[in-house]
Specification:
19 helices; mainly alpha; two-stranded antiparallel ribbon
Length: 432
Amino acid sequence: MSNILNRFFGFDAGTMSLKKEVYGGITTFLTMAYILAVNPAILSAAGMDRGAVFTATIVAAVIATLVMAIYAKLPFALAPGMGLNAFFAYTIVLSMGYSWQFALTAVFLEGVIFILLSVSGIRHMLISLIPENMRKAISPGIGLFIAFIGIHNAGLLVIEDSSLPLLGSLCTPAGALTCFGLLFTMILLIRNVTGAILIGIIVTTLLGIPFGLTHFSGVFDAPPSISPVLFKLQWSGIFTSDMFVCVATLLFLDMFDTIGSLVGVCNRVGMVDEKGDVRNMSKAFMADAIGTTVGALVGTSTVTTFVESATGVNAGGRSGLTSMVTALCFVLALFLAPLFLAIPPQATASALILVGVMMAQDIRKVDFSTLEKAIPAFLCLSMMAFTSSISDGIMLGLISHVVICIAKRQWSELNTGMCILALLFVLRYIFL
């Protein structure tokens, strides 16, 4: 039995515990299962069928996590990523005005490119096109954007005509329920309760019943049909500048999310080789790339490695067996669609806000010591929230970095690819 587990999942009976691997997999699922409620809610804002997205989310998560378990043999789970789904719905569709089919095509193309980069190793060259300090600002910028979405969807932000956003009423049923969910989940998180975000969503959803905000139609049911979003790619418009911007942005965000999650968690628990590199890093990238490509085909946004996998690793998970258990938990969740789809936006708001808080913690890694470093990073992270566009934050940050380097003649801080990207972004603002 041990030999089979070692061959398929890299499980070493001498240094690993089967019990801890299973517990780690379940723990990872509990901490990231909120995506089953949040992802359909976000993508439905783009006009996609919520039930179909629920099924697509699970299918993509299961396939990607299985590749991670069997091919990369690492204890990481994957699913449609937060921030990436927001870019899909709120930027590509609602802001840029494209169809969700166009957005799925951008995700598919990004996944295919990611596969090619994972095989060729060119990904390291592409990463260098974004200044290191700006890359560190992307995560907190997305965190602010996600928190804004959660607050807005819950009705706590009111935008009237052209005025600035105002705080909505906290005394309405929706406002009171949102506040309760946020405070309750916050307490669970700071007390290190396993599955705090998911528990917060469940409790807030149940409390929404007497408020008339939660409407249950059952618990168990056959999975919703995936057909409304399955294979719905749109090939017209793929050779446009907007498609280039969408694909490039998704690719960068996906790569940085994966690198940050893998390196950060593995370094924390010593899962690195003698050179300090994460073992099977290229295979982990391939799992991410395959998950994204398949996810686009089945009808969901970009799939990425979840940093919540750290909870399973901290619980003792060290091999692909941990991610295998997480994948099985997602399969079981497939038959609980009525339960997850009944969750109101007031219940998912706490997840969005607090995940935003966790992503914003990386702001401490951003160097604000000099203006030439602070300005591009600040524009990157702040404009994501102020413009409700992740791509605008990255583009404005990169343009400002190139301009500053040219003004100060810091040629060593520039490269040809970076300058070409900045020029393309400037041309986009002028002509589009």
